[in-house]
Amino acid sequence: MKTLFDMVLIVLLFPMLLNGNDDRPPIPYDYLSKPNVQRFIRMMHTKYGFDTGYLERTLHHAKLDRDTLARYTGKFKKNSTVGSWERFKLHVVNPETFKEAKAFKQKHYRTLQKAARQYGVDMDYIVGFLGVESHFGNYTGDYNILDALTTLAFHQNRMQKYFYSELKHLFLFAREKHYNIGRLEGSFAGAMGCVQQMPSIARKFNYDFDGDGASVWDIEDCIGSIAKFMHHKGWKNGRTVAVPAFFNGKRFKGLRVGFKTRYRLSLLKKHGIRPKTVYPYNTAALIRLRNSTHDELWLGAPNFKVLTAYNASSNYGMAIYKIAQSLK
Length: 328
Hints:
The chain is α+β, with helices and mostly antiparallel strands. It has two domains: 1-235, Orthogonal Bundle (Helicase, Ruva Protein, domain 3); 242-326, Lysozyme. The chain has helices at 4-7, 35-48, 52-61, 66-71, 85-91, 95-107, 109-119, 123-134, 145-154, 160-177, 199-205, 219-232, 265-270, 302-308, 314-326; strands spanning 27-28, 63-64, 143-144, 185-186, 242-246, 258-264, 274-275, 283-290, 295-300. A hairpin with a 4-residue loop joins strand 8 (283-290) and strand 9 (295-300). Helix 6 crosses helix 8 and helix 9 runs antiparallel to helix 10. It is globular and about 65 Å long. The two termini are 40 Å apart.
């Protein structure tokens, strides 16, 4: 049985903490009897050259993960995958995390400096990513990834097509890395390692940054991987990420909010919104953080969008931002 503390910390965002876990263990399931599984086996054999016997043996041993499936069936619940801002504050954006972020930066300073210079990114934001994703590499998940992705690939759910593709990438990833696919562990959604990469992302962005072989579980490789990702997504070093904004009242309801929004500052001014410090752009995303007693408004710059490219959530991006700012 997982303890409550254990359940609090795994997924695309050091995770379990932001989701409940009904703690039902995976159970045996006859996947080979399903037509869509047989089509998958034929596709992997024909397109990628996998041995049919290997695929059948592997999927024969895969189990049905009822806990994982429950997260992606039924009505989607807002904040069920990345969590409310109050939960981020409770588990991630707090003085203890800031203290640990400082210690992590000191311990891995040379690697962080190398990655920052090589890719032209800010090392404090690399630390922020690692803090949010896996609590600096300490919590990388204890779900069997094969069980999780097989369950989500072959049972109806709102993201089945996506997970079908990720199962394909899991087989390719395990073959490329010579891993035992049945022993890989990670989040309930199949994310792996200290920056919780899905198999497709791990294949694309993970690489050997320290010269001893690439691994999604190696902290130095994870530092390099995040730096590479930030550069690829358009990070501009030295540029503004976000600034706090004034508005009237305790709760804000005047305009649509979120990292995908884009408003001219002149329009925001008409709604009583203005930056508290210098904001160097003419347009901004309008970010709202919902605290228990009040809202915070922030203006998000292009660099803020880079933070949300890894996990599409304003709360996620702001958590990275605040950890990074604690290191300045």
